[in-house]
From TrEMBL:
It comes from the Eukaryota. This is Alpha-amylase. Its EC number is 3.2.1.1. GO terms for molecular function: alpha-amylase activity; metal ion binding. PANTHER family: ALPHA-AMYLASE 1, ALPHA-AMYLASE FAMILY MEMBER. Residues 1-27 form the signal peptide.
């Protein structure tokens, strides 16, 4: 811990320190999110960590409140940091209807959801996250209020604060998702649709959202249901938020041309949000790795995104979320999941990983014969456990460590694509993914002319995921063959190019042995681990760069505190 305060110093000093830590590092710009190599762990607070499981109490048709809190989340931040995440995205904080455990059924924008904790708990969470160089992004709901009847109308409007009259809402109409006007004025399911054209509604929502970072110390904002409000609203909101806070929006569409205007409207030249979730790529990844379609789908989608999106670096990349069925619900082959996650954690953009991914959550019903619902997509994590030995936990931790080390910093370029294999470069790093699955075995040649110039003189390309291959091979695999324990680390680059063999559907991250920066050290560390595994000594050693990153976190946090103390003194004077 960077800073601890004895309870004997009194609550006022403790609150001051927590406030200083939260304030110091608040509001990070889009450029800062990108340059600092942020990787985001998305979670639903009610389902991540709890002091008491209350899932069985209540009669909510969409799932009961399970008891997760901000305090319990704060206590479990080391688990998240243990995967090398340096950002979290938490569910909405405003007061919700009694069954709105997820945060998307707002009841009172002026109050916190007291089932998640107090204002003090929330500030402590943000402060504790910042101590570990974990930035905090909060989900924001401004499109609708929560439903409080079984039919769209009549509503008990007086319960909603501050929008306590039907005059603040669009009249009910069923949503036609193919019609732009309907998307913006009709009700999403049974959710009363706020009429942002009314000055009071518009001004409140914009001011409330723009003030979240300064009030709570949040570093970024995730904006819900963006395509259900006009682009002009988001442009005005973005201007109010300012350039110093990264704001990313949800526009659910498979077409990049539909998503693009919400970042930059080429028709008007207007800039809206800093980033958007890359739904076109999400659907391509699901098509390729879940349905095992041709890898050309990824190639076409990435080209489409480049043509339409002004700044792809600000896009959120993901393969799971709270709104969509989990990957393993539809595709049980974990090796395909590993390829999808490797792609997400190495491609251009800001990666988002949904909680439970690291424990292999397949969103299956807990009772045999039970009908599947969204509720199964949001299981309490404590029921799955917090194992740090799960293969997916180890893969995510390794990929995050490589990202922090700058392995995926370079410009992205497509190297090879066919129906089953996709290879791209990030600078000198080569990333190989495939859709062959756990029984797949293939040999792939990449012609010399396709490789980055650093490989042109020959040498070797070394696989930084070889250690994970070997660890899996030394563990019993009841559901399929594992890779050979004698996993090759490096492959020769000849006049014919780079040829490698893949077994068991494993992805690869290849770097030149004579590379720059931390690459030679990373190869050496993997080599040491492989020797230890082959000798039957287990993993051995520690994840690369941990000590250096610890010093970096300490320096950043210390500078933040010094600046906050200076600001605090100015406020007193």
């Amino acid at each position: 811990m960077l800073l601890s305060v004895s309870t004997r110093t009194g609550p006022s000093l403790q609150v001051l320190v927590a406030w200083l830590l939260a304030l110091a590092c608040e509001a990070k710009s889009p450029a800062e999110w990108i340059s600092s190599r942020r990787v985001v762990y998305q979670l639903i607070v009610d389902r991540f960590a709890s002091f008491e499981d209350t899932c069985g109490i209540g009669n909510c048709t969409g799932g009961n409140v399970c008891g997760g809190t901000w305090e319990a989340l704060a206590n479990n931040l080391p688990y998240i940091k243990g995967m090398e995440f340096n950002a979290i995205y938490i569910s909405p904080i405003m007061k919700n209807l009694p069954c709105g455990y997820h945060g998307y059924h707002p009841l009172d924008w002026t109050s916190l959801n007291d089932r998640l904790g107090t204002a003090k708990d929330l500030r402590k969470l943000v402060a504790k996250a910042h101590q570990s160089d974990i930035w905090v992004m909060v989900d924001v709901v401004v499109n609708n209020a929560g439903p409080n009847t079984d039919v769209p109308e009549p509503m008990n409007w007086t319960q909603v604060v501050p929008f306590n009259s039907p005059k603040y809402y669009h009249p009910y109409c069923p949503m036609d998702f193919e019609n732009e006007t309907s998307n913006e004025v009709c009700w999403l399911w049974k959710l009363p649709d706020l009429n942002e054209s009314i000055p009071f509604v518009r001004e409140f929502l914009i001011n409330w959202t723009a003030g979240l970072s300064s009030k709570w110390g949040f570093d970024g904002l995730r904006l819900d249901a963006v395509k259900h409000m006009p682009i002009a609203f988001w442009q005005e909101l973005s201007a109010a938020i300012g350039e110093d806070t990264y704001a990313i929006g949800e526009v659910l569409s498979q077409k990049a041309a539909d998503v693009a205007p919400y970042q930059y409207d080429r028709k008007t030249g207007g800039t809206a949000l800093d980033g958007l979730f890359n739904y076109p790529l999400y659907f391509a990844l699901r098509d390729v790795f879940v349905d095992r379609g041709s890898m050309w789908k990824i190639s076409g989608t990435l080209n489409d995104v480049k043509r339409n999106i002004k700044d792809p670096r600000g896009l959120g990349v993901f393969v799971d979320s709270h709104d969509l069925p989990r990957f393993l619900r539809s595709q049980k082959d974990v090796q395909l999941y590993k390829s999808a996650l490797t792609f997400v954690l190495s491609t251009e953009g800001i990666p988002f990983i949904y909680y439970g991914t690291e424990q292999g959550d397949d969103a299956s019903p807990e009772v045999d014969g039970e009908e599947w619902t969204d509720e199964h997509n949001r299981k309490p994590l404590w029921r799955l456990g917090y194992s740090t030995e799960h293969p997916l936990f180890r893969l995510i931790k390794t990929m995050n460590s490589l990202r922090h080390a700058g392995v995926f910093d370079g410009p992205q370029e497509e190297i090879w694509v066919d129906d089953h294999v996709y290879v791209f470069a990030r600078g000198t790093t080569l990333v190989m993914t495939s859709n062959v699955g756990k029984f797949g075995v293939f040999t792939q040649n990449l012609p010399l002319s396709t490789l980055p110039i650093e490989y042109q003189a020959g040498g070797q390309a070394c696989n930084l995921l070889a250690r994970l291959w070997a660890e899996d091979a030394s563990t019993p695999q009841p559901d399929g063959p594992a890779a050979s324990p004698d996993v090759p680390l490096c492959y020769n680059v000849t006049q014919d190019g780079l040829t490698f063999r893949s077994e068991g559907g494993w992805p690869m991250v290849l770097v030149p042995r004579n590379g720059d920066g931390e690459q030679p050290q990373l190869i050496e560390e993997v080599e040491e681990h492989l020797h230890a595994i082959r000798a039957g000594e287990g993993e051995g050693g520690h994840t690369s760069g941990e000590a250096g990153r610890g010093i970096a976190w300490l320096s950043v946090a210390a500078l933040c505190v010094v600046w906050a103390l200076f600001e605090y003194r100015l406020r007193l004077t």
